[in-house]
């Protein structure tokens, strides 16, 4: 008896050419996602090994182990919300702001609260350590930044000049006397702590959410609105303007030894730029709006904080490492086995190789197709993982059902809840040029099967209206391109 011929689920080739950056950033393991009860405020990764990860969420700072993605320490000495947990350069201490304005310094290894810096009149969202000196700098919603002495908790100076909340700030990596602050008044200011005055101010054009400074200190980057802007720190000249997101950009990070710049946005994307040309070399998609992110040294781990339905999501992605090839089970790899004489098995004239028939395991949808169980075959490829990660399999099974004239049988007899998955899949993928024709045929079959039931199902009507709206947008896009 002839064996069942499996359905061909070829992957449609992307028209974009694979680049070194694409291959590099795709070499990340499937993300480990952890849910928090509140949104993720900030992520910071220790510069020193073992590269612990400080994640600030709710009234606590959780210190995660990089490799296991599990909580190693909890810092919970906060009355209300905690903000902006930050590691010192040696990884020994953590500084964090709070909703009540106090800034707290911890020895996270012993979970000891060492210092409390009091003086701000509003929530303190961002903090930083001053390099090589026992000082810290804080940025507050009271429109000021402050420099503090770690020894006696005294305030050294107050930096006043912003007219709105300060939600971004850092110490220049080139000089411990230069402080950068970004505010919701649309400006980024550079401060000289020796005089306590602003030495440079630039207008970003939107509330500033995040700032970064290059190691040389001569160039800094600001993010706010849907733009990333690159500035000359000496004259305040705008060097480049990047508009690759369509929603507010919330965070910035460096990667690949400062050769790549990452921007995260509420549009659920992280864009990766080449800093030599500021062109996008790759884009990462996430299931929810991105609030913050961190990249471990050597790009070994990418951590992204998101918000979904009022709750926080943390995504850990580790870079895959090459593993040594394991010997086949039962194969003797000992030195004795290597010395056994093996007869010459090279091909000779007249030899004919007989390949045994391989009985490969059938996929679940193939099993159902072989039994003509079309409805179950469709259910097998409408599970969330297949629809999200391998949509080409779903499309190929739909095409096979059309070819067998079994599509109407597969979609018939379903309630509104069961049809939701199929309609959401069509709506999400109808714009794909290689999927469009098949999904249009599926849509026509759905209308043929369920047109008489629309009066009795308001939920079904809603789905069809959403689908009609999406199809109308597709048609408009096609005609505009002509």
Structural class, please? alpha+beta
Count of beta strands: 28
Q: What is the total number of structural domains?
A: 2
The unreliable regions are 323-343
The CATH architecture designation of the largest domain is 7 Propeller
CATH homolog superfamily of the largest domain: YVTN repeat-like/Quinoprotein amine dehydrogenase
CATH topology value of the largest domain: Methylamine Dehydrogenase, Chain H
Query: How confident is the prediction overall: mean pLDDT?
Result: 85
Determine the number of helices (DSSP H or I, runs of at least 4 residues). 10
Q: Let me know the largest β-sheet.
A: 4 strands, antiparallel
Tell me the strand order in the biggest sheet: 1-28-27-26
Helical proportion, percent range: 10-25%
Tell me what portion of residues adopts beta-strand conformation.
Answer: 25-35%
Basic shape: elongated
Terminal CA distance: 52 Å
